[in-house]
Design goal:
Blueprint: H1 3-23, H2 46-49, H3 55-72, E1 87-89, E2 95-97, E3 101-106, E4 119-126, E5 129-140, E6 145-149, E7 156-164, E8 169-170, E9 174-177
Length: 183
Amino acid sequence: MPRTECTRRAAAAYRALRAACALGYKSGRADSPEPHRIVDHPPRPLLFTMKLTTPLTTLTLLLAGAFSQLAAAAPVLETRDVYTPPVLYPHTGTVWTTGQRHNVTWSTADAPVHITNKIGQIQLRDYDTSTPLILASGFNILDGRVEVEVPWVVPGDNYSLVLFGDSGNFSPQFSIQGGPSLF
């Protein structure tokens, strides 16, 4: 098609468009302030028109997506019980001698199904003061006994043991003899 014919057809179409706008033929609204538009489009939702133009916006959306995935994959925690087994031996009236070996025993009769910490440790106390002496550690609290060696300490009648695991539980006070004398 020659160029003049193309130009003539385009000019005719433009005139027809302007005439339609002047008459108010615009998607049923003759009083529209935009006479140059023929068809109105419904407004797009914000989600589809938003542009990710800043790195901060992109980073925020990525982090929000990652956290939502982590929250969905979080494990369900089961309820656990605190377990304080009573120490049965040594008991009041027991006398230990430095260097001997003894079985520390405790009751496991009422052990719950889910225990918070099953790893046990036994520490020596002198009256109301915890000593740094750990007599046993790393055993299963559900075993009910562990063998310990009596440490070399000052003789006394106010010693007790602390059974750690899920919680700390004290033995009754007992005596240790045969250690160094203060005088």
